[in-house]
Amino acid sequence: MGEKEKARRLSFVEKLSLNFVISSSIYRFPDFFYRSSSLEKLRVSYILILECTVSWKSLRKLTLSCCCNLKYESVDNILSGSPMLETLGLHYCTGPVRLDLSKSRSLRRLKIRDYKGYPNISGNDRQRLAEIVAPHIHYLKLRSCYKPLTLVDVSCLMEAHLDIFSGHSSSLALNIPFEEKADFLQTGVLKMLAKLQNAERLSFGGSLLQIMSLAELRGVSFPTFKVQTLTLRTRFAQSFIPGITRLLPGLRKLIAVPTHIDDIDIEDSDLDSYLDSQGLNPDQCWRSKYDVFPTSDESDMIVRNEESLWELVVSFVAMVLRNVMTLEMLVVGLNHIDRNFNDAESFEDLLQMLPNKNNVSIVLKR
């Protein structure tokens, strides 16, 4: 098939997904690929070599996965050549340490998973954070198994889903011991949270909550939020609760989704070692106010026991009700619980054990 025929056929394609097998050879796209006026959705995995000016006039959604060669000029080329771009996804990509998306005025949704800024950070600069400049986005989903990112400008952000870790803690932040990076992580997380003060809907993952718990136990000040709806993907365990309680005042709706027992957050032993290094007694920190909650390991066993599970749910709901002032609805997700509980009967029992908060609607949801 000749180049003209390929170009003619591509001119009718609206959705295209290209997944290349990793190899030593580099595939170079023909020039007509970069001039497609019909493409609306494009996904490219592993390879994207920009050798000419991009002109994707209809492109609305672009997802790049495992692309390790994104340069400053490549990002500018994509943004300037995609005037209708609304959604950008970067999954396991390496690109500019300062990811500047300010030129894309149409961009509203940004999804990033494990983005690393180049050149590879090493030596004394290994804790430098990649920066995101995205003043026009309304939605951000950010997951990093490396370290926090600096949100330079997300001034129009309305909804954000954030977590720091997506893998085992031993693989995080260049494999340095958690005790040595905990201060750096807390600082990075709190700076990131400060940029979310005007967002109305937030979602936080378990490891981020644990980092916030450390900051709370140390008496570090937190930014204030205007958030109306907060979703927490977490365990009902001691190391998560201090961070959660810090977020509760001012909420109207809270959604708590227990994570699966196979999901790995920061190990309790790492958190304890850090607290000990700060001159704090871990046992006193966790158990002085949060002794009704189990450790992470204990919580994994509790979800397999019906009676203990409901006691834990009651403890969590009661903790929430004690720390809220404006809450209207509390939703507790039970989607990872395998047993076939009698939900109706258990729910009635739960209500009998809770403090009187008639103005809060409580929903248990599978």
UniProtKB/TrEMBL annotation:
Residue span, F-box/LRR-repeat protein 15/At3g58940/PEG3-like LRR domain: 13-129
Coiled-coil intervals, chain numbering: none
Domain of life where this protein originates: Eukaryota
Record-linked InterPro entries: F-box_plant (IPR044997), LRR_dom_sf (IPR032675), LRR_FXL15/At3g58940/PEG3-like (IPR055411)
Pfam family, one: LRR_At5g56370
Annotated Gene3D superfamilies: Ribonuclease Inhibitor
Name by which UniProt lists this protein: F-box/LRR-repeat protein At5g02700
